[in-house]
Amino acid sequence: MRKDKLYFLTFISISVIFLIIASFGVKYFIKVSANQLIEIQLESSKREANEISKLAQHWTIEDIDKLKIVNSIQKAIENTQNEASFICLFDWSGKQVCHPDITKVGLKVNSDQSLIKSLNEEDSSDKLYDLLINQRKQNDSIANAEIVSEIVYISPVKGSDLIVAAQVNLSKISVQIRKLKTSFYTIFALMGGLIILSSFFAVRIIGSYYEKQLEQKNTSLESELLNLSKLNTDLIAYQQKVVENTEEELLEPTMESSVDSSKKRILTYIRNELIPVSINDISYIYTENTITYIVCFDGKRSTSNDSLDDILMNLDTSLFFRANRQFIISITAIAKIIKYGNSQLKILIKDADVEIIISKNKAAEFRQWLNI
User: Using the 8-state DSSP alphabet, how is residue 353 labeled?
Assistant: First the structure.
């Protein structure tokens, strides 16, 4: 149940994070895309208005009758008000003389002059987008609003009192933006579902793989712990055996022990004083800065002129072990054996702040030594 609950919470977390990010991201992408759409419409409207203005100017220069010019433009633009943008024509008095909707010819131009002024500045698409959003908030449907189109650009016809105006069909653009929003929300919903599900399954797969790795690691650790426990058990048994053998030798010395090849004492120095040290009193021997030190169980330290190799030749190898290049340790001095690093061992010495590391290659030899 814990795993299922964890996976469920992971699914909920990913979903909430995606919804938070999407709620901000989708609005930004919709606005950017809508502005690009509006900007294309504006540029198209401006270009068409300029072309009509230049054509009317050319006809005026050729002394073509104004009425014929107006009729020609009226025929060209008639019934285009349902498009996203269209052209109309009005005179300086503000009366419309040409309009796609013939019923509006002769009426006064009703336009937001502040909008026309702002559209001549930068970020004109932002202005029109804000107009659409505000108008949409004020009206349930933009088709029911009093103003369904707006003049966005004017181009006067030189040599006449006519002005060509480019208008945008707000309802048409609003429908395009709604379709754009629907497309974006659909894409985000599909993408969100795909991301959430794929992330959920990825978490499950990675989690399962990680759990298997942990199980393998725990199994390996348990095996190493058992081996280490056995090693410490062997150490205690060996130390007890050494103590018993030492006591027997003290109580019942034999000729065989008297001619043992290993020494019973080592000659050491404390400053200029020559001090014999009993082998049984030695805790560990180490070298530092080419000097060999002999440390006893009582903490006393003396030096020797011999190297570790020379000293080890004169020691009982069943009692002393060459741990590494720097240390020789006594079996009775070992307090505890701890796993260290990758298959290495750390030896803690009794009553001494010393940690001796046995390498991976030397660890097998050390285990065999304890099992003698």
Answer: -
Q: In this structure, what token pair is assigned to residue 30? A: 């919709």
φ, ψ at 153 (rounded to 5°) = -160, 140
Cα dist. 77→107, 152, 226 in Å? Answer: 17, 17, 94
CA distance 358 to 83: 87
Cβ atoms of residues 152 and 116 within 8 Å: yes
- Which residues lie across from 219 on neighbouring strands? none
Count of positions (residues) in the chain: 372
The rounded distance, in Å, linking the Cα atoms of 64 and 67 is 9
Number of helices (H), then strands (E), belonging to the chain: the values are 8, 14
Instruction: Tell me the residue ranges of DSSP E strands in 81-148.
Output: 85-91, 96-98
pLDDT in tens, the chain (372 residues): 466 777 777 778 888 887 888 777 777 888 888 888 878 888 888 899 999 999 999 988 888 888 898 899 989 888 887 778 888 898 888 888 998 888 888 888 765 554 454 455 555 556 666 666 665 555 544 444 444 677 888 889 888 889 998 888 877 877 888 888 888 888 888 888 888 888 878 877 887 787 788 777 777 666 666 677 777 777 777 767 766 666 665 555 544 444 344 578 888 988 888 889 998 899 999 999 889 999 999 889 999 988 999 898 888 888 899 999 999 999 889 888 888 877 788 889 988 888 899 988 888 888 888 775
Residue type at 21 in one-letter notation = I
Q: Which residues, in sequence order, are bridge partners of residue 327?
A: 286
CA distances from 14 to 27, 206, 372 (A): 20, 15, 60
Scored b (16 or more CB within 10 A) or e, 113-137 reads eebeebbeeeebbebbbebbeebbe
